[in-house]
Design goal:
Blueprint (H helix, E strand, L loop, with lengths): L1 H18 L13 H15 L14 H24 L11 H29 L6 H7 L1 H18 L4 H13 L2 E2 L4 E2 L4 E3 L5 E2 L4 E2 L4 E3 L3 E3 L20 E2 L4 E2 L4 E3 L4 E2 L4 E2 L4 E2 L8 E2 L25
Length: 305
């Protein structure tokens, strides 16, 4: 075993030097995936006290508990944001971290109000749920959306890397992939949720409802003269107020807009805008229903086995 380790370590070190993988730039570490995951868990506890805890949270202890949790998450998040803003220049303090953290703390009540509208949209939009508490405890969309709404603020406050790490943490847990750059209005509901993708430059209005398997993605990527993908630019569609998008539909393109009060049927592939109050469906193919108890002669194959 010692011989195996002795032979392997030098090869690994050469690999690290050749293709990267060392989380150290002149003794400066990059953000930690494990730490960001723990931050997400603590933020959910702050947003939904009592719902992400093993023990009951009593009203009399809520002030002290919230202060302790907020103090802890500020310290953890500050450390990760500080590492992210120093990438490329590790020894020079930027002064960017404190205002980013301060702004995020100030909008926590606002984010909770937005999430309240999302819970209400789920309660009104899903006949399977009997209690709003059920939505907080068991609906994956709410966890993914809570993290995205916070990451969206960090993204716009100028925190690199960490917002994307947060939404990827939620993606791994829920199967819902919402880029932190996506702008989402009030009363948003993703029913079931698995396989949903919402791209960076999407703008979603209020009272939007989408189902599992929906993709709001890019149609194509602009390339420069050397064939490299040009970063930035509007690449993903916009969705108006009171739009419903049914399962497994794909809507692509930065110039694509779904007008308000429209309905996109299941399995639709769309790369152009539709006006408000539109119903977009594929014409149904002929459906055949046969009685399985009445057997018909099988066709004779034209080959031999």
């Amino acid at each position: 075993m010692a011989e195996l380790v002795g032979d392997t370590v030098p090869e690994l070190l050469r690999s690290y030097a050749r293709v990267g993988g060392l989380n150290n730039r002149d003794a400066h570490n990059m953000p930690s995936k494990r730490a960001v995951g723990q931050i997400c868990r603590e933020l959910l506890q702050i947003l939904f006290p009592g719902f992400h805890d093993d023990a009951a949270v009593h009203a009399g202890s809520l002030e002290e508990l919230t202060a302790n949790r907020l103090t802890d998450v500020i310290a953890r998040l500050s450390d990760q944001v500080r590492k992210s803003v120093r990438i490329g220049n590790p020894h020079k303090p930027t002064g960017r971290t404190p205002p980013i953290i301060r702004k995020l703390c100030q909008v926590l009540p606002e984010v909770r109000e937005l999430l309240r509208t999302d819970i209400e949209a789920a309660y009104q939009g899903d006949p399977a749920t009997l209690h709003r508490e059920e939505i907080i405890l068991s609906y994956p969309f709410l966890e993914a959306l809570a993290i995205q709404r916070l990451a969206h603020r960090l993204y716009h406050y100028g925190a690199p890397l960490v917002p994307r790490m947060m939404t990827e943490w939620a993606h791994g847990r829920t199967g819902i992939d919402i880029h932190p750059g996506a702008s989402i209005g009030t009363h948003f509901f993703i029913d079931h949720g698995t396989g949903v993708v919402i791209g960076e430059t999407c703008n979603l209005g209020n009272h939007v409802k989408i189902y599992h398997g929906v993709t709001l993605g890019a149609r194509s990527f602009v390339k420069d003269g050397d064939g490299h993908v040009v970063k930035g630019g509007k690449r993903h569609p916009d969705v108006g107020d009171h739009v419903t998008i049914y399962p497994n539909s794909t809507i692509l393109g930065g110039q694509t807009t779904i007008g308000a009060h429209s309905t996109i049927g299941a399995n639709v592939f769309l790369m152009h805008s539709v006006p408000p109050h539109s119903l977009v469906v594929y014409e149904e193919k002929q459906l055949v229903i046969r009685d399985k108890s009445i057997r018909t002669p099988a066709a004779t194959p034209d080959y031999a086995i």
